TrEMBL record, chains A, B:
Belongs to the pantothenate synthetase family. Gene3D superfamilies: HUPs (3.40.50.620), Pantoate-beta-alanine ligase, C-terminal domain (3.30.1300.10). This is Pantothenate synthetase. Keywords: ATP-binding, Cytoplasm, Ligase, Nucleotide-binding, Pantothenate biosynthesis.
Amino acid sequence: MKVIRTVAELVAAIRTYKVEQPSSSIGFVPTMGYLHQGHASLLERSRQENDLSVLSIFVNPIQFGPNEDLDRYPRDEERDLATAERAGVDIAFLPTVEEMYPTTTKTKVAVSELTSLLCGASRPGHFDGVTTVVSKLFHMVKPTRAYFGMKDAQQVAVLTQMVADLNMDVEIVPCPIVREADGLALSSRNVYLSPEQRKQALMLSQSLLQAVGKLEEDVLAVEQVKAGIIERISQAPLADIEYVEVISFPSLERLSEDTLLPAQDADTLIALAVRFGSTRLIDNIRITKKKGESFPCSVK
Amino acid sequence: MKVIRTVAELVAAIRTYKVEQPSSSIGFVPTMGYLHQGHASLLERSRQENDLSVLSIFVNPIQFGPNEDLDRYPRDEERDLATAERAGVDIAFLPTVEEMYPTTTKTKVAVSELTSLLCGASRPGHFDGVTTVVSKLFHMVKPTRAYFGMKDAQQVAVLTQMVADLNMDVEIVPCPIVREADGLALSSRNVYLSPEQRKQALMLSQSLLQAVGKLEEDVLAVEQVKAGIIERISQAPLADIEYVEVISFPSLERLSEDTLLPAQDADTLIALAVRFGSTRLIDNIRITKKKGESFPCSVK
């Protein structure tokens, strides 16, 4: 595995590879590091599906708001590089902030509409930071496929829109959420949780599974599904609900409160964000509408 | 010369070329058609400096304001294709609006600061339209070099900033303004001018040359240079001045009124926009600061 820390070296390495192996595919997993099994699953898939596998680790300052956790975002480069090596990464790119932003960027890539709700509503500018840095990384790595976890379902939808709108020659591959044995979605931010918060954070996945369970037995309106989830999470005294939303996926349009679920015409996402103290957790479940299945729900 | 009208066909052609000729260079000239000698000079340079030369002709609706000349923008596909053929173009890409924007784009590429003055001030959203469509075209064509005329000096500066900020792997090549024998800068919009307007439009280049002539003899303040240009153009009764500005290039920062020219520390652009009836013309002259030259002015 080659560890690269400068943009110039990365661009040169990709250029050489493309000249020497013009028919080969490049898989890319952009991350903010502190890699967990969710990231490892993306890296393994990138390895399996491509000739060259590239990982980037960069805590991108422009996707953090002024009162967010940029300064305390967890880092462990040594462990990350070991994880990457095990997952068969060929190039690990670990730039400094100065490498990525030698001057303050005057150029932004921004996706409208899809970014106005869910995490976009509570984190203004967050997705502009994501689409801008991912554009930069795509231009450096020139990947055939890029892998993103469905825990950040809105990020997947926004990047899919960006790639289509800007004719970027890359396939966005959404990958299933990886969970702890007890159901908690893996996140680098889980490390912030106190033991008691960690225990109560289970309510996130449990409330989603409960909603799916009810939908297996009954047709329910959006407002009933949301009320059930809010009621369940409210049983955790340390949980502070930011949003519970039911939206179409990947178009991210809010379903009206009286829409009956499971919806017949599109995939539906039940998504939530909950704060425990200063730690913000998100989770979601996608209800897929597939023909011929008795119940179109995918617990991924 | 291959004429391509769909995005899919263009992307496939470039992909095949890149696999078969991985070390070859691609030159690209994006235009809105109605090609004149200025465009031809870009095409010839693209031909000379690259293995494959690509022209695009697309009147991009999202860079026109609601009261601008989108609907009457001049078109002559047959003549354009003959010009392209003569200039050694390998691929001419002529997409429809539906090909470029199958749905309304939710994604915008926007450059701040550099777009807040000059044409950006009077044409809100114009440069966002330019940077967005050029991003799309760059992602399709994957050029090594892209050629732009210095008549649109602000466009050159904005695109250079975009490419640097987003790490796009393409070189923006600014090319000299091509002028009629009498000095009028070539523009597809010159066709709109009545004979009398055409005559008076000469004041644009003459006022710039007069300013340069004075600067060859004297050190003058920005306000004196601007006043001289405004006075000269005001002699044309049909001319309606939109702006006359003296700015740094390519950083596009306004110089204070008392700055003495020629400036010692950076290239300077004297830029102007003037309306004749509903026709808007622009012109500029760049004063380069080069060591060892007696007078650092380039009449390009």
